[in-house]
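User: What would this chain look like folded?
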Amino acid sequence: MVTGGAGYIGSHIVLALLQSNYDVIVLDNLSNSSIVSLQRVSQICDRTPLFVEGDVRDRDLLDMLFAKHSIDAVLHLAGLKAVGDSVRKPAEYFSNNLSGTITLCLAMAAAGVHRLVFSSSATVYGASDAVPISEDQPVGNTTNPYARSKFFAEKILDDLAVSDSRWSIALLRYFNPVGAHESGLIGEHPHGIPNNLMPYICQVAAGKLPELLIFGNDYPTPDGTGVRDYIHVVDLAEGHLAALNALSSRKGINVWNLGTGEGYSVFQLIKAFEIASGREVPYRIVGRRTGDVSISFADPVKASFELCWTAKRGINLMVRDAWRWQTMNPNGY
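Assistant: Here's the prediction, encoded as structure tokens.
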């Protein structure tokens, strides 16, 4: 079962699972996603996941699903994810991201299902400029409610694994997912003005937004703009499958970074995008955002060694696939 499986990352994971001959149930409340994404997944691979519209906090629904279907693992992606939004609505974020995780785990335990891949975030490392970031670096010095919801959920899952040795849990700390499937059929479909850099760039290049706002050009980086680790969403999906497979022989808590190990600045990303698209991306420099760090990229060695997984798709392919998705789907789904 994939919770949040109709979303941007979730739909790519569902596709990868189906292509690897898994049977998949998707649970999604469609609050920040579209059922069309799963219809497109079926177009690509000629297999269809079972879709259930519902909320991961609905215990009765979860109990029914576990009773009705032979589920042996859960990939849990359902949750709210916008940093700025979390500052404005922290209670909503804790309700969705924490209560949802707790309710899901209670239902899993009652059904005797103990294999869980959890969608965490590199934001749990907090405001640290120490790079590359490895899994043994301190966590918890978080700067916003979204990051805290992921950190708290990790601690809850850690306590759960300590309390019951049957649990096999993967905490996957994503860095910055971008791009889209090479078909152009599934990709990122933000509601309103995008919160993430790549879809914002795409919409500016397409003329849907007038300019890109760059938050600060006075960071101690080569060109003054923030440096981040961007990972192709298809590589990210493949990382989930690798973690799921690894849990078949691993107990307790397992933590893996999913990143490329390379950092690119905002200006470098814009330049790569302009070359790939042939479009200019007008921008305006504004002040820094509170909590933003100057540079952040992963140390991916642990995932490479333990999962036999590495990100294979480079920045040029990321921007090409993102632009193909934008041009084929100017209004998203």
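The domain at 2-328 is CATH 3.40.50.720 (Rossmann fold). If you want, I can go into more detail on any region.
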